[in-house]
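Researcher: Quick one. two chains, 798 residues in total.
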Amino acid sequence: MTPVAGGSALSLSFGFSLLTVITLLIYTKNQDYRLFLVGQRLALGVSFFIFIATFILSYQLIISNFDIDYVARYTSIETPTIYKISALWAGQSGSLLFWLFILSIFSTITIIQNQNKHHELMPWVIISLTITQMFFLILTNYVTNPFKPTEADFIVTNGNGLNPLLQNITMAIHPPTLYLGYVGFSVPFAFAISALVNRDTSPLWIQSIRRWVLVAWLFLSMGIILGGWWAYQELGWGGYWAWDPVENASFMPWLTATAFLHSIIIQEKKDMLRLWNMVLIILTFTLCIFGTFLTRSGVMSSVHSFTESSLGPIFLSFVFLILIASFGIMYIRLDDLKSPRKIESFTSRESGFLFNNMVFVVLCFAVFWGTLFPVISEAVRGIKITVGAPFFNQINTPIGLILLALTGVGPLLAWRRTGAKNLIRNFTFPIISGFVAAIFFIIIGYKGYAVISFSLCVFVTVSIMTEFSQGIRARTNKFKESVFIALVKMISKNRSRYGGYIVHVGIVLMFVGFTGHAFDREKEFSLQIGQVDHVAGYEFELINLSESERPNHYAWISELRVSDNQGRFITNLYPEKRVYFHKNPDINRRQPHSELDIYSTLNKDIYSIFSSIDNEKGIAFLKIMINPLVKWVWIGGYVLVFGTVIALWPRKEK
Amino acid sequence: MNSKNKFKLLILGVVFVTFFWITWVTFNPSNSKAMATFISVKELTENNINKRIKLGGLVKDGSINISKANQLDCSFVLKEGLSELVVKYGRTRPDLFKDGSEVIVAGQYLDGIFYADELQTKCASRYEGDLRNENSYNLSEIEQ
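Model:
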C-alpha cells in the first residue's frame, strides 16, 4: 500500500510541475497576477509531494519493507538504523529522489524568501527550478522508480545489506553535503536565466544570489574534502585524491563556481564582466548536472559509479538542453550583457580577478580534457586510452601553482590601477619573504615543484598578513583600539573580504598538505610476532596478533609497536583485517575488509594496512606508508569552512 | 594599443598557452603510468602490443596462486569472453579480489604473461546483484 502512495506522490508531483510551468508561462504573457500566485502555490505543491515521497521511502527503509526493491537491495534487517536512512542515497533511484528532495527544499526556501521581492524575476526563477525538478521527476517516475516493487519468485525475508565501506559516518555525510552543493547552484542559475529573460542587467540580482552561491560553494567544498577524508581513512591506498572521473566531476563545478564567486564581486562593485558571469554560472550548473550524470550513468568506470544504466542518454540530452537553451537566450540578449565600463589597467584588482578567473577555467578545462579523453580518443581514433593520476598531476600542478601565486598577488593590487610606487611598496616584503623561503628550502635539499609550492605558500601567507596588519594598524591609529579588538572589528565590518582572506589561508594550508605528497614513502613486508622491519627511519615491531568476533564481522588484529631510529617509542598501531558477513555459509558472499590505523601528527602520518594473514605460521602481511603533512589538508579544510562562514554571517539590520 | 586590445591579447595568450600545454602533456606524458590503452584480452594476445595496457575481465575460478613466501606475489588467469591470459601481480591485493571477481589490471605484456602493477576490483556484485534467496542469516544468529 505505502509503496503505491510513494509512487503516486511522485506522479502527482510531476503533474504539478507541468501545471506550474504552463501557468507561469501564461502569466508571463498576460500578466494576470492571480496566475502568478497560482503558479507559485503549484510550485510549492511540486516540492510538497516530493517531500512526501522522500519521507515514505525513508520510512520504508527504516522499517525494512523488503516488498520495495530498493529497500531489499540496499538494506538488511541487521543494518543499523542510521545507515538504513543513509541508504536513501546509497543507490541510484534513491539518490535521484534525494537530489529532488534537496532541490525541493531550496526551491521552497527561494519561493518563500522572495514572496515580496523580485516580482519581475520570480516567475522565470520558478520556471527554471521547476523544469529542473521535472527532469528528475521524469527519471524517478519513468526510468528508475525508487518505489518499484520487489520482483522475485521467492519471498525476500532479508535484504542485501549496505556495503560495509559505506557503513561509516563520513560516508553517511559526504554524499548529502556534496548534493547540497551541486543542487545549491540551481538557484543562482535560475536567477541568472530569469535576469536574462527579463533583461535585468542591474547588479541587483547578483547581490541577492551572492549568499546562495557561497552556501552552495561551501557545501560543495565540504563534500569534496569529506570525500577525500573518507577515501584516506577507509580505502587504504594512502591517498585522498585519485583524479577518478567522479572526483573530477565534483571538482569541475567547484572550479567554475570559485571563479564565479570572485568575478561576481567585480560585477557587484564595478558592473563589469556581465557576460562572463553568465557564462560561469551556466557552466557551473551544467557541470553539476554533468557530475550527477557521470556518477549515475556508469559511462566511466569508477569506484563511485553504479552499474551501467539507461540514464546516460537522458542525462546527456538534459545537459545539452540546458546548454542550448541558456546560451541561446544569452546570445539573444548579448546587447544587454555589454558592460558599461572596461578594465583600465593590467595592474588593477579587476585584472587580477580576470586573470584568476581565466586560470580557474583553464584548470577546469584541463580536468575536463583528462576526464573525457578516453571517450574522445575512442570516438576519434577508435582506441580507448585511459588517463591516470600522473597525467592530471603533471598537467595541473603548474596551473594550480599559478592560482596559488595569484591568491597572493590579487589582494596587493588596488582597484582601477596600482601605481608604480604602490606596486613596489606592496610587493617588496612578500616577494622577498618568498625568495628567502625558496633559498631556505633549496638549502635543506628540497627540489622542483616542492620548493616552488612551499615558497609560494610563504609569499601568499605574508601577503595576506600584510593585508591584515595594514587594516589593524589603520584602526589602532584611528580609534586607539587594542590589536585584538581592532582585528575583530575589522573582520566584522568587512566580513566578505576578510572571510575571503581566511579562506585563502585555508587554501594555502591545503597546498602545504598537497606538497607533502612529493615526500611519500611506502613499503610492503611481512612480520611474525617479535620481528621488526624499517620504513623511512621508523621501526615497526609486531607485538601481537589476536582475533575477535564482533556483531557484524570477524576481525584479526595486529599490534604494531612503532619507534623512531633511536629506538624511542612513538605509538602502537592496530590495523585490522576484517571479514563482514562472516557467518554467511556462501564463502563468496563474505566480504573481507582492511581496517587501517593511522598515527597522525602535524608533521606526518604513519599509515598502516593489515593486508593479509597466514594463520598457520602466524605471519602478518603489512603495508606501511609515511605520508608527510597530510593533516594540513584537513586543517586547511577547517579554516576554509571557518572563513566561508564568516563571509556568510549576516549583518545586523540597522 | 588601447587597453581593450591589450586584454584581448592577454586572453588570446592564455588560450594559446593552455592549448600548447595540454597538447604537450597529452603527447609527452612524463610518467609512463600516465596513460594506458584499454583493449581486450583477445586483441592483446593476437597482436603482442608493447605499450602500457589496461585490461578488464573476470578472475578464473581456482586460478589464483599466491606465493607462500611473501603472500604478495600472485598469479591468476584473467578471463574475458573466451580469451584467457596469465597475470602476475606483486603488490597488496584489494580486499574484494577473489575467484570470479571482476577486475581491471594495468601493466605490460611480455611473452604471454601480463605483468600488472595496478589491480582494481569492481564493487562487490553483492550490492548491485540479484536479491538473495537463501536464509543466509538466521535471526537467532544475529541476536546473539
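Chain B has two domains: 1-30, 37-125.
Researcher: Thanks, that's what I needed.
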